[in-house]
User: Fold this.
Amino acid sequence: MEKKEKLKDKASIRFKMLKRKYAEMLNNALKESKVDKQLIPFLKKVNSLDKFFTASSCAGRIILLETTTSESKKESKFIFKKHGKVSFEEIFPKIRDFDAKDKYLWFKQEPFILHIGTDTLENAKKIITAMHKAGIKRGGIMVAQEGKYIIELLGTQSLSLLVKYKDFQICENCFRKQLQIANKKLERNYRRLKLFEKEFLKVS
Amino acid sequence: MEKKEKLKDKASIRFKMLKRKYAEMLNNALKESKVDKQLIPFLKKVNSLDKFFTASSCAGRIILLETTTSESKKESKFIFKKHGKVSFEEIFPKIRDFDAKDKYLWFKQEPFILHIGTDTLENAKKIITAMHKAGIKRGGIMVAQEGKYIIELLGTQSLSLLVKYKDFQICENCFRKQLQIANKKLERNYRRLKLFEKEFLKVS
Assistant:
């Protein structure tokens, strides 16, 4: 067998192993209800395709995040998390009741983040094409090995501010405004995600 | 000449043209003082290398941005912009004096964004390696054609909130806190950028 063909075989084996591994991870996450409900149909669709799979993804959400003052990710903790519209009544008490003696409390609206895997550069470029067609500006190929291409796509709708630390707490009026904006941005974020889903299924 | 060699030649010509074009754009931007001062040494260094060039990049900044309520980018306008630490005294009057009758006013601390171009997938992967070594989590290959690989790198330190709209204006106390955090995050952002510059020069 020629060297080139051997490499191709190796890449093909690598891709099959990866696809199996991520399918298993998705199945486990589904069993444990750890997947955003609105993303499930798209994730299932992608993983049913021969040449694609998904890795950890999120449709976008509104959160309250506790961190240390150095913001180390390991020590951060969700105080509130929802993949959808949030009312003042369901979130503000969480801020009011939070003990922020030596911790930061952040309010964030985070955009979608998708990770899609594929086997070749050619297929990776198809995802980039769909991304551009959907008007998504942030993203690219993060891992580029034959048999293992991982593409990350990131929404741009986001909001992030400090809401509590020591004797500082955001006032109700100001928080109401930020929440209103966050809900609006989240809606816009979901619309962009839907656009991408459509474009991706056209090229895949 | 074989087909493969012809393609290689074409890619090489494409890369040389691109490198020349971006060098010219950088020179013009330098003449018009449109480049972040702290990025200049790194941009010059990258562009002096045979196989790399830079496209539009920013070291990270603190801004006040005016937008329509639909946040169309075309109609947005900088009310304040600085690539460095900002004092309450230099920014708060801009908020106070802003007429927000039918416009949003945003306060944002934006992270660095770098665009580096190179000729081959192999060299693109070197940039990704430097990115990971510097602990940068967001970024990837955005354009992948032989002779034209563009890699985007994005910092993660950011803050973004609405500070004025109609009869809403953020209160002084709350804004002071956000500004303090923004300055801290910007400092952290610059440190990460320095790390990447070091790692990139090792692999390039």
About this structure: Chain B has one domain: 3-203. The two ends of chain B are 31 Å apart (CA to CA). The domain at 3-203 of chain B is CATH 3.30.1960.10 (SSo0622-like fold). Chain B has a mean pLDDT of 94.
